[in-house]
Specification:
Layout (H helix, E strand, L loop, with lengths): L5 E5 L6 H15 L3 E4 L16 H11 L4 E7 L6 H15 L3 E5 L18 H20 L2 E5 L4 E6 L12 E4 L3 H10 L2 E4 L11 H21 L8 E5 L13 H14 L3 E5 L11 H15 L1
Parallel strand pairs: 1-2, 1-10, 2-3, 3-4, 4-7, 7-8, 8-9, 9-10
Antiparallel strand pairs: 5-6
Length: 302
């Protein structure tokens, strides 16, 4: 969009590749989006009983079908991933894409992924503990040729990751976090920070409440960065839309989006992510308006 604000999209993995899937990713590149992300879940909310494909194979196919578009996850979680196997997949994906991969990663939650492997859902404390071990280990696995680790939740024994990532020293991490421990991880290991806003006010708050909550999150991120001796300006700030009191209203018109994006750019966000429309879902929107936003919003934002 402008030098200080990029526009990206999320393409949920709900279409068969040969029935509109490939074309959707190619269209995202044609429209000029900075990055096209997908969700990394085994199933998700209202789509649980509908088609839902794997993130890494989808991104691999998208890498082969595009040439400029950055690709990534929003977000991967430890719910069903292990750092050793994930690192191998990411190095391969980064290689196939020619260095166009961003890993969005979060602590996970209590959704379907949390129990799909037969385990009990983790408590918030255990999720935070696991996330705090997962991210540093994955960082090492993506930057070192051989890694051994014996932790509380994860282990690696001479795990080899040669030749490493195309992007050096590794693919960028976009860490989703709002709590103090997660924000410290973002400050230490992230190239970007991701938020969807404050879920506590999503249903009952106002757009103004949301802006205030996001400002508060950014202030906490700044403190976390200061605590580890890092300038917050070194991190991209990614806002994944669709989960605040605004709902889908920013996609109702080009003008509505420009107003929305301008307010969030003023907070300090460097990237705004909008969902590609999916009819008859919570992400239903006018495809023509979506494409106008992709191609015309930058000029209006100046």
């Amino acid at each position: 969009m402008s030098a200080s604000l990029r526009l990206s999209t999320v393409i949920l993995p709900v279409r068969r590749w040969h029935d509109g899937g490939r074309e959707q990713w190619q269209r995202a590149e044609e429209l000029g989006f900075h990055t096209a992300y997908t969700y990394d879940h085994l199933s998700w909310r209202s789509f649980r009983d509908q088609a839902w494909f794997g993130a890494v194979p989808t991104l691999t196919a998208a890498a082969a079908a595009t040439s400029r578009l950055r690709l990534g996850t929003l977000v991967t979680s430890p719910n069903f991933r292990h750092p050793v196997t994930l690192a191998k997949e990411l190095i391969t994906l980064d290689d196939i894409s020619g260095g166009r991969i961003t890993l969005g990663i979060g602590a996970g939650g209590n959704g379907f992924d949390a129990t799909a492997l037969g385990q009990e859902s983790w408590s918030p404390r255990e999720r935070a503990d696991r996330f705090g071990e997962f991210v540093p280990l994955l960082d090492r696995l993506l930057t070192e040729d051989a890694v051994s680790h014996q932790g509380t939740h994860y282990a690696a024994e001479e795990a080899r990751n040669i030749p490493g990532c195309v992007q050096r020293p590794r693919i960028p991490f976009a860490i989703a976090a709002t709590g103090p421990r997660g924000l410290r991880l973002a400050a230490r290991h992230g190239q970007a920070w991701v938020t969807t806003g404050d879920p506590k006010i999503a249903a009952t708050g106002t757009p103004e409440d949301s802006v205030a909550a996001l400002q508060g999150q950014l202030e906490k991120l700044e403190k976390a960065c200061s605590d580890v001796g890092r300038d917050i300006a070194q991190l991209d700030k990614i806002f994944l839309t669709g989960f605040t009191p605004d709902g889908g209203r920013p996609l109702e018109s080009l003008d509505a989006f420009v107003d929305f994006a301008g307010k969030h750019r003023a907070l300090g966000f460097t990237e705004i992510v909008i969902h590609a429309p999916i009819p008859d879902s919570v992400f239903a929107a006018d495809q023509k308006v979506f494409e106008r936003i992709a191609t015309e919003a930058a000029a209006q934002l100046g």
